[in-house]
Amino acid sequence: MSDHLNKAAFYKTVRTRLGSLDQSQVNGFEMLIAAIEAAPLSHQAYMLATAWHETAATMQPIKERGGVEYFTRLYDVAGDRPKTCIAYGNTCAGDGPKHCGRGYVMLTWKSNYARADAKLAEAGLIKPGELLANPDLAMRPDIAAFIMVRGMAEGWFSGKKLSDYLPARGVATRAQYVQARRIINILDKAELIEDYAQVFERALRDGGAS
């Protein structure tokens, strides 16, 4: 856990390994560090690594790249994969562009937005139905952080969750970090994200996390 994390030591290691950080990146780290502090060390490291990769190192919530045509083709019943789209809740024309990826990790599909909406409302962060009515709320940093943490812990994105691959205590092995990519996107860029996870694990440990 990262209770009483020595931020100076944490950022020194991050900057040494990954380069300089601007204030926007630091703000993103601050948001996420607060959101993940109750998680085991390896889970924290992997969540930070995932956010670093998925946001192109901005550490700010982003919207998936692409336009209406791309999102329609990929996520819409009017596109190339209607059966897949229906299975994930995108049952109406226009659901694809509306429910494209957003956040620190890419929340996609109407079914996932509906689950996030319910969990966010339960936590008091939004009113019921608010995220479904305005999917861009998934770009709000506190909401994006909640979705990342709960989604990776509970298996929202692929059915796989952090505890399926990473230890509840101590550090993770290289192989465990590589396999943890299945939580988000099979093994796409798995070794690169494993490298980032090792950096963030080291930074958290240098900051006093255990």
Our Rg estimate from Cα atoms comes to 17 Å
Mean pLDDT: 96
Tally of separate helices: 12
The biggest beta sheet reads: 2 strands, antiparallel
Helix/strand structural class: mainly alpha
The level of helicity is 55-70%
User: How far do the termini sit from each other?
Assistant: 6 Å
Number of strands: 2
Tell me the series of helices and strands, N- to C-terminal.
HHHEHHHEHHHHHH
Low-confidence stretches: none
Number of domain modules:
2
Shape: globular
- The strands making up the biggest β-sheet line up spatially as 1-2
Percent range for β-strand residues: under 5%
What does this structure look like?
The protein has 210 residues and is mainly alpha-helical. The protein folds into two domains: 7-62 and 145-206, no CATH class; 64-138, no CATH class. The protein is built from twelve helices and two strands, in the order H-H-H-E-H-H-H-E-H-H-H-H-H-H. The protein has helices spanning 7-18, 23-36, 41-54, 68-75, 82-87, 95-98, 110-122, 130-133, 141-154, 174-179, 182-185, 190-206; strands spanning 62-63, 102-103. Strands 1-2 form a two-stranded antiparallel sheet.
Which properties best describe this structure?
210 residues, mainly alpha, 2 domains, 12 helices
Topology:
Blueprint: H1 7-18, H2 23-36, H3 41-54, E1 62-63, H4 68-75, H5 82-87, H6 95-98, E2 102-103, H7 110-122, H8 130-133, H9 141-154, H10 174-179, H11 182-185, H12 190-206
Helix pairs in contact: 1-12, 2-3, 2-9, 3-12
